[in-house]
């Protein structure tokens, strides 16, 4: 009976419980959708071919590449300054600037200066908000 009043938290793995649960629920829901709509999904090849032919491939693939690099680099950079959130801040500034430049049609200095200000101010504000008022650490 005494064990019911004690809670043990493994801080090394406790942050992985919620994402693992959400991933499991999303996989189950995806499988349910796949089973329910398998005939429509199998017949949608022509629509996907048309979609891929008409899409802006450099922006689409560039966004995927930037996002993969962003999430891959955040934890190793954050491990250089643990529990400070600087990994988020240092990786977010070039990510916001890179995606902004990628989606910018006219890449002139006049257009790039506001983007640079947003790329510096946005992640810095989010980092400050999570670090000081909310007392939450980012990776």
Q: Considering DSSP H and I runs of 4 or more, what fraction of the residues is helical?
A: over 70%
Mean of all residue-level pLDDT scores: 91
- Separation of termini? 38 Å
Q: Number of DSSP helices?
A: 6
Radius of gyration: 21 Å
Class of secondary structure makeup: mainly alpha
Enumerate the spans where pLDDT stays under 50 for 5 or more consecutive residues.
Answer: none
Number of domains: 2
Shape: flat
The major β-sheet equals: none
The total of beta strands comes to: 0
| Element-level helix/strand string | HHHHHH
Strand content: under 5%
InterPro entries: DUF1468
Organism: Paroceanicella profunda
Keywords: Membrane, Plasmid, Transmembrane, Transmembrane helix
Protein name: DUF1468 domain-containing protein
Descriptive terms for the model:
DUF1468, 72% helix, mainly alpha, 2 domains, transmembrane, membrane, transmembrane helix, 139 residues, plasmid
Short description:
The protein has 139 residues and is mainly α. It contains 6 helices and no strands.
Walk me through the structure.
By secondary structure, the protein is mostly helical. The chain folds into two domains: 43 residues; 77 residues, no CATH class. 72% of the residues lie in helices and 0% in strands. The protein has six helices and no strands. Helix 4 packs antiparallel against helix 5 and helix 5 packs antiparallel against helix 6. The two termini are 38 Å apart. This is DUF1468 domain-containing protein. Pfam families: TctB. Keywords: Membrane, Plasmid, Transmembrane, Transmembrane helix. InterPro entries: DUF1468 (IPR009936).
């Amino acid at each position: 009976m005494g064990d019911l009043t004690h809670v043990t938290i493994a801080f090394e793995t406790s942050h992985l419980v919620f994402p693992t649960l959400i991933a499991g629920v999303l996989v189950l829901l995806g499988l349910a959708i796949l089973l329910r709509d398998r005939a429509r999904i199998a017949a949608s090849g022509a629509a996907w071919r048309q979609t891929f032919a008409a899409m802006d491939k450099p922006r689409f693939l560039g966004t995927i590449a930037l996002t993969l690099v962003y999430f891959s680099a955040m934890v190793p950079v954050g491990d250089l300054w643990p529990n400070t959130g600087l990994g988020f801040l240092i990786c977010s500034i070039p990510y916001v600037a890179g995606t902004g430049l990628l989606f910018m049609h006219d890449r002139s200095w006049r257009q790039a200066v506001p983007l640079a200000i947003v790329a510096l101010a946005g992640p810095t504000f989010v980092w400050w908000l999570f670090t000081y008022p909310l007392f939450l650490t980012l990776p």
